[in-house]
Structure formats: structure tokens, C-alpha cells
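Bumping my old thread because nobody answered last time. Still need a sequence for this structure:
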């Protein structure tokens, strides 16, 4: 039987060789990462600290030691650059759910490095506007948030923060001011926000660039006394 399985795998490799989603190099079906080739995998550097969301400096003690006026700490698994950028774009724009196992693996490595106490935390994914959700069919932040929920064994809430304003894609906006204006008052807390009292919140999004999306969501949460 084992011999037949090897033959079947060999035939599949010949007919439909898996390729790296970034550089298109053929990779073995027995590879531990069916998404990236070994060379691309080695280029991904998983972070080990939290960051200041203002200046992006590392926070070695996972404390807000830079801009103390900041309303939150930034957790970033890795830099938004190739080859990791390919995974996010294929998930976000092409619906390639086969990349989720790799995303979860990188999340696990980062969470292990942080070694944070998440007792009393809940996860809230950055919501999409209903029209955008209908167009895309899924919310990539919610998918990533569910993976994080599985790893940390803490609940995820998708019905507390909503997106009322249909905004332009942030990618299309060239500067920070335009992105801020685009997202101004985009998010709202629903009436059942009492379930957030005395909870620490992990806001999840797929990409953090200018911080406009996260800033507006945090502002709304803070305005509700959270």
C-alpha cells in the first residue's frame, strides 16, 4: 500500500506539480509548506515583540515605552513584504483558503514568541461593510481572527463592531490624510457592547500600513468606554 501511495504521489507531481505562490518554483508535495518553496520560506522573518503603532519601534518588554499617548499596542507577525505579501493577497483577493494552514503556522510562532497572558481577552476582527462583504463573500480579517481564536483558545466576537460607512479601498488612496478622511467615523459599536466591559480586546486585520483603519476602530471602542 505504501508503495502505491508513493507511485500516486509521483504521478500527481508529474501531472500537477505544486508551485511556490511567490516565485513559481516547483515544490515537493511532501514539503512541510505546500505554499512556499524553501528559499521563499527562509525569507519570512517572524517577529518576537509588540510594536509602537506610532513610530513602529519594537517594544522588547511588550510595554508602551515609546509614544505613551498611543491608545493601543501593535502586534505584527511579520513585515508586509514579499513573499508574505503573496499569501495575504491570494487570500484577500482570490479566496485561496489553502494558504490558511501557513498563516496559522506563522501566527503560532509569533504567539509563542510573545508569551502573553490573554486571560480575559476577546478577539474582534475589523468588519467589512455589508456591500463589500457581499461582493467578496468573506471577511479575511475574520478568517485570520478565527485562526487566532483557535490558537489562543479565546472567543471571537463578530457582532459587536460594525462598519456603517462604505469606504474606498485604502490601497487606492495615496497618502495618510486621505486614508484618515476615508475612514473617519466608519465604525460603530452595537447596543450589546456591555459584553465588552472588563475585557481586553485584540483587534485583528490582515494588513497594518498607515494605521488609519485600526485607529478609527480603536477610537470607536474607546468612545464607548472600552
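Sorry it took so long. Here it is:
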Amino acid at each position: 500500500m505504501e508503495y502505491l501511495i508513493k507511485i500516486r504521489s509521483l504521478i500527481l507531481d508529474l501531472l500537477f506539480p505544486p508551485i511556490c505562490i511567490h516565485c513559481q518554483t516547483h515544490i515537493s508535495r511532501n514539503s512541510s509548506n505546500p505554499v512556499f518553496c524553501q528559499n521563499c520560506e527562509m525569507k519570512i522573518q517572524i517577529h518576537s515583540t509588540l510594536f509602537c503603532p506610532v513610530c513602529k519601534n519594537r517594544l522588547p518588554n511588550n510595554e508602551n515605552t515609546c509614544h505613551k499617548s498611543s491608545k493601543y499596542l501593535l502586534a505584527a507577525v511579520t513585515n508586509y513584504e514579499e513573499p508574505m505579501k503573496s499569501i495575504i493577497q491570494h487570500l484577500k483577493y482570490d479566496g485561496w483558503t489553502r494558504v490558511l494552514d501557513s498563516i496559522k503556522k506563522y501566527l503560532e510562532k509569533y504567539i509563542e514568541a510573545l508569551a502573553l497572558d490573554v486571560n480575559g481577552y476577546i478577539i474582534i476582527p475589523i468588519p467589512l461593510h455589508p456591500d463589500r462583504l457581499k461582493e467578496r463573500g468573506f471577511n479575511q480579517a475574520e478568517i485570520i481572527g478565527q485562526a487566532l481564536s483557535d490558537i489562543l483558545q479565546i472567543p471571537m466576537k463578530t457582532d459587536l463592531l460594525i462598519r456603517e460607512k462604505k469606504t474606498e479601498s485604502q490601497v487606492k488612496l495615496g497618502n495618510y490624510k486621505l486614508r484618515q478622511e476615508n475612514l473617519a467615523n466608519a465604525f460603530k459599536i452595537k447596543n450589546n457592547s456591555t459584553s465588552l466591559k472588563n475585557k481586553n480586546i485584540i483587534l485583528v486585520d490582515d494588513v497594518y500600513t498607515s494605521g488609519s483603519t485600526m485607529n478609527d476602530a480603536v477610537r470607536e471602542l474607546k468612545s464607548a468606554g472600552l
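The helical segments are 2-15, 38-42, 84-94, 100-114, 130-136, 140-152, 176-183, 212-223. Let me know if any region looks off to you.
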